[in-house]
What we know:
Layout: H1 4-9, E1 15-18, E2 21-24, H2 25-102, H3 108-128, H4 131-148, H5 156-174
Antiparallel strand pairs: 1-2
Helix pairs in contact: 2-3, 2-5, 4-5
Amino acid sequence: MVSFGSLVMGSSLGTMPLYGKNMEIKSIIEIAGIILSSIGISAGIIAFTAKWVANIWAAKIVEREKTKLEKEKTNFTKALNEKIDIYKKAIDIYSELLNNFDYNNITKEQRYNFNKERMRLYGYMGLIAPQEVMSTFDSLTDYLFDVMEQKESYDWVKVRNHSLKIINSIRKDIGINDSDIIYKGKR
């Protein structure tokens, strides 16, 4: 009769029966090492593959975000340039009228042309300008119409103060500078 002890330990010290064969501890350690090595190698291959795939995904995400940011930058730059062009046109229209005021020769035709351009410009500015910019233009426009309708007299200091408010509000809107410019001349 075969006892449990003889099945586990075998007939000699250091050997174990395995499925009917005797296996030495050295062989068991070698097999365990092979199994652990293959598990380690498999884990390494899986880790390498996961890192490789993650790098590919990360590169695609970075490229997609980079493209998105470039598009946003281009759109922002285009919108800013369009806004600046509209503001330049506004300054040109008002400067021409103010030049005529300085020489006291506002004709009916000049008044008509100013009003026509001002209304068109007001529509353009209404699309892009914040209320602060619109209000500063309104203030100057109201003053100029009061002068043209002889409700007020023309005063260059008032015009300059209105104009500086316009310029400062535009500077803030387009992000050039938040600080106000002031007139430091003698006139």
